[in-house]
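Continued from yesterday's entry.
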Amino acid sequence: MSWEYSCPKCEAMLNPGCAIVLVASHNKDRCLIGLHPQPGKYEIYLPPSVHTVDGDHWAFACPMCHEDLRTDEDENLCELTLRIDGDALRILFSRVAGEHATFIMHGRVIRERYGEDSSRYDEFVGHG
């Protein structure tokens, strides 16, 4: 199965290699971050000088158009477009460091959910 991620604003491809590449920022830290492309895998790739602290809220932006990737479902979730074998879906993921919550959405309906923290968003995701 192949996963192809793009920006929901400008449609730029975000995983030309083995990771999803985004601009991440928190306080004074601003860098490129790599996220594992397989939903439910929470490995991140950061520059050696950047560290995360569980609970910190990071901002994510497209490296091409620089638009904020937060979604309207919840301010703690970001959105990308995900193409799986040709189907265009929405993927929502937590921007809170250490929180494991990912949703594959067909429109506003949850198709799949991942992560032990995904139930925190039951009230906000998949209703609408």
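--- second protein ---
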Amino acid sequence: MQGLIATAAARHYGVSFPFAKDLVLGDDDTFVLQYEVRMQQGLQCGGAYLKVPAASSGLDLGALEPDTPYIVMFGPDKCGTTNKVHFILRHENPVNGEWSEHHLTAPPLPKDGS
């Protein structure tokens, strides 16, 4: 188990690790992706996402950026008029190679811990 304590506001933090092997799911497979985030001082403006990057030969887990391609993004996002829990699946069409994003149609609100 790993933990991350973010000590400065308005800053990007991250923890990354590789899967032990490539994740290939069949039609009858189940995959559970879970993480816990606790905002000890609440979430004023920002996000706390779990991202599963897309597999690529050039993927450097030590140099992830906000625009690093991902296949799953999950977590709270709150700032301005945005206040929701994201759950986004990105999928590559096997026929034409185009990527599309699928978002929850009615995302839940993040719990504020109170």
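The first strand starts at residue 46 and ends at 47. The chain is about 0% helix and 30% strand. Will compare against the first tomorrow.
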